[in-house]
């Protein structure tokens, strides 16, 4: 990317040469064009993956939303985010409410929402909540951004030492899967904001379209008189038109809809919802590879971001191109 940006250095930002959006989009388009990737994409939704046996080998039958299906020798599951995580108080809401008045971040597309003059409560302390707050305010909404602890300012989800061997060396030497999971949990330590996002949010609080409520945890919500009434642990009360939950996702292999048939036919161990894969991120006994957050026990705390995608791709590619590593 630095080579691509040789004549656009002003679009790389310190301290790590982070690319601006336009530069990064152009870089991706250039890769797609150079490797002729646009002709390799088939647009459809996979609804089911069935492991099947054919003479002397195993295959996968992929069922598609369109009704079509096809057979694949190998499958790489790179589906991104996990299962939406909802706070306990959401399940305890007794009053009926319109479903579009309480949304998880995965359900929100700012391009299609009309929120001008609306009062929106965004709950969460991670970068997603920051992006939602900025997007809503730019459309004319009034926003309360609430986090149950002090907002953390970090450049990375986990310490940069996890990008290389500084911390990963000991992580890979740890053979106890439960201890590995604890290391992942400790390294990520919940959501955080980048310095650039925090600067933008602070500026918005001065202009009053944004209110930051830190160390504030919701314990109850009621839908009354066409608005939300929110009660917090410290007995503060808030009123708003909509609630957006930026409360993260859970990575649980036993709840992943595309892995139901795989787990039934080729059960594997999992720790805190994460599967135990081989060193190539391969499901035991199958040519099924897992990327993203579900591969964290093998890749480490950065499994779900771009650095993890690179590490995961390198492992999987090795198994794909070396015949000696292939299963029948």
Q: Could you characterize the architecture of this molecule?
A:
The protein is 27% helix and 23% strand. By secondary structure, it is an alpha/beta fold. The protein folds into two domains: 9-82 and 252-325, FAD/NAD(P)-binding domain (3-Layer(bba) Sandwich); 83-157 and 192-250, 3-Layer(bba) Sandwich (FAD/NAD(P)-binding domain). It is globular. The mean pLDDT is 92. It catalyses: L-lysine + NADPH + O2 = N(6)-hydroxy-L-lysine + NADP(+) + H2O. Belongs to the lysine N(6)-hydroxylase/L-ornithine N(5)-oxygenase family. GO terms for molecular function: L-lysine 6-monooxygenase (NADPH) activity. Pathway: Siderophore biosynthesis.
SSE arrangement:
Blueprint: E1 12-13, E2 18-19, H1 21-34, E3 46-54, E4 57-64, E5 69-72, E6 75-77, E7 83-84, H2 88-91, E8 102-104, E9 119-123, H3 127-138, E10 142-146, H4 165-173, H5 177-188, H6 195-206, E11 210-213, E12 218-224, E13 227-232, E14 237-240, E15 242-245, E16 249-250, H7 260-265, E17 270-271, E18 274-275, E19 288-290, H8 296-299, H9 306-321
Parallel strand pairs: 6-19, 8-15, 9-10, 9-15, 10-11
Antiparallel strand pairs: 1-2, 3-4, 4-5, 7-16, 12-13, 13-14, 17-18
Helix pairs in contact: 3-6
> Number of helix segments?
9
Cα gyration radius (Å) = 22 Å
What kind of sheet is the major sheet?
Answer: 5 strands, parallel
State the CATH topology of the largest domain: FAD/NAD(P)-binding domain
**How do the helices and strands follow one another from N- to C-terminus?**
EEHEEEEEHEEHEHHHEEEEEEHEEEHH
Report the principal-axis shape: globular
Number of domains: 2
GO molecular function: L-lysine 6-monooxygenase (NADPH) activity
Protein name: L-lysine N6-monooxygenase MbtG
Cofactor: FAD
Pathway: Siderophore biosynthesis
């Amino acid at each position: 990317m630095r080579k691509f940006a040789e004549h656009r250095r002003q679009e790389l930002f310190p301290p790590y040469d982070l690319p601006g959006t336009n530069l990064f989009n152009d870089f991706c388009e250039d890769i797609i064009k150079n490797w002729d990737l646009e002709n390799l994409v088939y647009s459809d939704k996979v609804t089911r993956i069935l492991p099947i046996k054919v003479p002397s080998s195993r295959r996968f039958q992929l069922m598609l939303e369109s009704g079509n299906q096809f057979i694949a020798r190998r499958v790489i599951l790179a589906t991104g985010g996990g299962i939406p995580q909802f706070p306990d108080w959401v399940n305890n809401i007794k009053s009926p409410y319109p479903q579009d008045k309480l949304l998880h971040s995965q359900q929100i597309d700012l391009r299609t929402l009309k929120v001008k003059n609306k009062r929106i409560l965004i709950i969460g302390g991670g970068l997603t909540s920051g992006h939602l707050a900025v997007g809503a305010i730019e459309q004319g909404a009034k926003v309360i951004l609430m986090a149950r602890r002090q907002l953390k300012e970090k450049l990375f989800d986990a310490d940069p030492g996890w990008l290389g061997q500084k911390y990963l060396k000991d992580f890979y030497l740890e053979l106890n899967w439960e201890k590995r999971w604890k290391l992942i949990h400790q390294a990520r330590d919940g959501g955080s904001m980048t310095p650039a996002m925090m600067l933008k949010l602070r500026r918005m609080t001065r202009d009053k379209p944004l209110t930051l409520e830190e160390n504030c945890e919701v314990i109850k919500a009621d839908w009354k008189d066409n608005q939300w009434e929110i009660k917090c642990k410290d007995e503060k009360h808030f009123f708003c038109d909509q609630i957006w939950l930026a409360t993260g996702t859970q990575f649980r292999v036993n709840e992943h809809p595309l892995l139901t048939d795989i787990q039934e036919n080729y059960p594997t161990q999992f720790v805190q919802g994460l599967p135990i894969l081989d060193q190539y991120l391969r499901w035991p006994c199958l040519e099924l590879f897992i990327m993203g957050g579900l591969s964290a026990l093998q890749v480490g705390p950065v499994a779900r971001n771009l650095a993890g995608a690179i590490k995961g791709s390198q492992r999987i590619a090795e198994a794909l191109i070396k015949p000696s590593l292939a299963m029948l």
